[in-house]
């Protein structure tokens, strides 16, 4: 059973300076993804976080795009937000795409020095997707932006506390 979203997430959003977030979104299900992106950008803009969006064909391509942007960008983003929607159909394709994008984002979080936020809706039908872009389950685009800001703040705090971490 799905929860009603993280009602505590928007509390205590840290103020961060000079932050830059790259959003990577899919062309597939654009009528849904555009709403996810709008919510994400709304929060980032309200918090003064610079952002840029890249578009890829589908969810499976998101990890490649993030890795490429990270390695080739003039300014390394402080975080990435992956936005997509995979809607279950009649074939196992849903499982392959969901597993692939999830594993790819997990790997990015291990190898990159900045966080990649999982904003991929994996749903059984369009109604469930709509419930997650401003419906009864909150707005996952907004939640992804808040998570990015919190993770940037954490990452920056660790940079400033290198001597305090571990046994010195």
> Strand tally, please?
6
Uncertain residue ranges: none
Shape: globular
| Class from secondary-structure proportions | alpha/beta
Label the CATH architecture. 3-Layer(aba) Sandwich
Q: What profile does the largest beta sheet have?
A: 4 strands, parallel
Any idea how many domains? 1
First-last Cα distance: 46 Å
Task: Give a brief outline of the structure.
The chain is built from five helices and six strands; from the N terminus they run βαβαβαβαββα.
Explain what you see:
Helix content is 44%, strand content 21%. Helix 1 (30-46) crosses helix 5 (140-160) and helix 2 packs parallel to helix 3 (93-111). It is built from 5 helices and 6 strands. It has one domain (20-158): Rossmann fold (3-Layer(aba) Sandwich), CATH 3.40.50.960. It starts with 19 loop residues before the first strand and ends in an 8-residue tail after the last helix. With 168 residues, it is of the alpha/beta class. The strands form 2 sheets. Strands 2-1-3-4 form a 4-stranded parallel β-sheet, with helices on both faces. Strands 5-6 form a two-stranded antiparallel ribbon.
């Amino acid at each position: 059973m799905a929860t009603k979203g993280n009602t505590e997430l928007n509390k205590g959003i840290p103020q961060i300076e000079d932050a830059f977030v790259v959003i990577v979104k899919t062309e597939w299900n654009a009528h849904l993804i555009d709403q996810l992106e709008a919510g994400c950008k709304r929060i980032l803009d309200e918090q003064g976080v610079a952002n840029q969006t890249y578009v890829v064909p589908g969810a499976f391509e998101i990890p490649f795009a993030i890795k490429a942007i990270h390695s080739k960008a003039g300014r390394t983003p402080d975080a990435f937000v992956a936005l997509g929607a995979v809607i279950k159909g009649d074939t196992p394709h849903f499982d392959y795409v969901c597993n692939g994008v999830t594993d790819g984002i997990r790997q990015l979080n291990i190898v990159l020095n900045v966080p990649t936020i999982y904003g991929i809706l994996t749903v059984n039908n369009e109604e469930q997707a709509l419930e997650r872009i401003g419906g009864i389950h909150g707005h996952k685009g907004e939640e992804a932006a808040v998570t990015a800001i919190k993770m940037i703040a954490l990452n920056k705090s660790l940079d400033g506390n290198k001597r305090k971490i571990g046994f010195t």
